[in-house]
Amino acid sequence: MRIWLRFYGFFKPYQGYGLLLLVLLLIGNLGSLVTPFFLKIIIDKVFGERNYDLLLNIIFTLTAIYILRIIAGFLADYLYTWISNKITVTLTTSLFAHMLKLPIQFFRSQSVGTIVYKINNEVGQVRRAFTGTVISMINNIITIIALIVLMIVLDMKLFLVVSILYPLLLMVMKLFSPSIKRVVEKTRREESDLMAFLTERFSNIKFIKLFNGYRSENQTMDSRISEIVKLNLHSTVLSSASNGLSVFLLALIPLVVLAYGGKLVLQDAMTVGTLIAFLQYANKLHEPLRNVVNLYVDLVKTSVSIKRLFELFDEPPQQNLEGELTMFSKPFNAVEFRNISFAHADKPILQDFNFTFKAGKHYALVGTSGSGKTTLADLMSKIIEPKRGSIFVDGQDLKDIPMMQWMNSYSICSQEYFIINGTLQENFSYGNDNSSIENLTDILQQIRLQDEAGTDLSVRSFGERGSQLSGGQKQKIAIARSAVRHPDLLVLDEATSEIDAASEESIYRFLIDTCKISTLITITHRLSALGFADEIIYLENGRIVEQGSLEDLIARKGYFFELFKNQFNTGNSLSMKNRLSQVVVK
Ligand SMILES: Nc1ncnc2c1ncn2[C@@H]1O[C@H](COP(=O)(O)OP(=O)(O)OP(=O)(O)O)[C@@H](O)[C@H]1O
């Protein structure tokens, strides 16, 4: 019930229209229920008193009622569809907006398939319920109430006798609903796991083919589907048992009316017209009551969907995403890591890390795999927060700078980039206030993309996730896109790993000379990417173990020299070749 009360929040803005809808439904229903009442008058009065004028009056009244009923029905349908669509649009858009604000950790802890399933299927179930089930439920309940009133008006005693059966009906509904709810919840979980499984498999289809994974994938699919089929059967058994019992109880109602009402007619305590009208109402009650039982099961299923959607709404959004703007100079002068410690679960990654990145310099972060380089970039991106210590931007704690403000000064390009299935213009203008990129052709030439990918590059789409481009071409677009936002600080995290040395050189020239990026941090395992680095920082187990210029570190023959010595003589960028020619490498 709490879930429905909470959901009422989405309906609240339209409650006035809801009231109007109720009135229209009432008119439509009452119109359909008056016939047996008039039948009683026809049998007892028209034929009893041989009154033809009364018969004609009844026929005209019935015609007018039928016309009114049709108009009310049409208006109710239109209004209902409008309200339910408004509710589902608000639900979907507010859920999407909320989810965009969730922290990255949430998306790392859930698979994409599960999230898509929740948004798509659960919202779909709620939409179906609101475009069918709820209106039907309201309609049927109104019909039941109207029928009960009419039966009471016809004969109170007979109604009381019949009504013994109704509480039994409620008991049947209550008896089955907890088990149905449990099974439906389990089915939804299994279905969303299946969606997660499918998303993962089709995103990695190349891997499955290369590893001959067909058999094991089919087996997993079989067992997942079998489990869902088993749960669906279980749910059907429970729903059918609940419906069967209800139908049996409902079928008893007209029999009870005949048994008791027939006796009253034989004792002249009731007219034949009243008994026939009462029997008609009792029979009419059969269908809406059965519908209510079925719809109740549907609403139990919908409540499961609503609960799962509210679980998403209850996820806390990332802190200080928008917030109040803080003042730090643009471009800023320095980003200082002060006593930063960070751990994944209990595994320490950075310990008492101290370093200041000064504006106007090009830094390189190098070190063995897993030494914490990307973690540093993630901290700077505000994707994760330090366990201890703080990062300061010109003395302002990064924690206090709203993420949306920070992203106007900072940009990162990593291997996890996103190429939109659209044109280059659309890719470049994504998230840019300056949505038209004027010198696109010039940019393409500078990053050596024009010749490689064809002249139609600026007008054609690249396919999903840039599937029609090579790895290096995608990386070039991702880097240029970050650069045209003109950040003060740009981090390139293995961003040129698939780009040849000559193009890499052009890209750095583009970033430094054309885009005038003030501060660059390159995270890399490739010597060729270090041609423009003023200062190299070598990380080992989350600590700086060496730092200095390329020339210093080569001369020192320490960690850096050991890690990169094999690359001194292989396909280097021009700037790196120049620098290496200045130092004695033995
Ligand atoms: N989400 C996570 N959960 C648990 N541990 C993680 C997570 N992300 C990274 N790690 C661990 O943190 C450590 C540092 O990872 P990080 O990505 O910062 O290393 P890196 O220096 O960038 O490595 P590489 O050069 O291989 O990219 C690694 O040991 C890694 O296993």
Automatic annotation (TrEMBL):
GO terms for cellular component: plasma membrane. It is a multi-pass membrane protein. Keywords: ATP-binding, Membrane, Nucleotide-binding, Transmembrane, Transmembrane helix. It comes from the Bacteria. Residues 19-301 form the ABC transmembrane type-1 domain. Residues 335-566 form the ABC transporter domain. It is found in: Cell membrane. Its main location: membrane. This is ATP-binding cassette, subfamily B, MsbA. The chain crosses the membrane at residues 20-42, 54-76, 129-152, 158-176, 231-258. SMART domains: AAA (SM00382). One of its GO terms (molecular function) is ATP hydrolysis activity. It holds the Pfam family ABC_membrane. PROSITE patterns: ABC_TM1F, ABC_TRANSPORTER_1, ABC_TRANSPORTER_2.
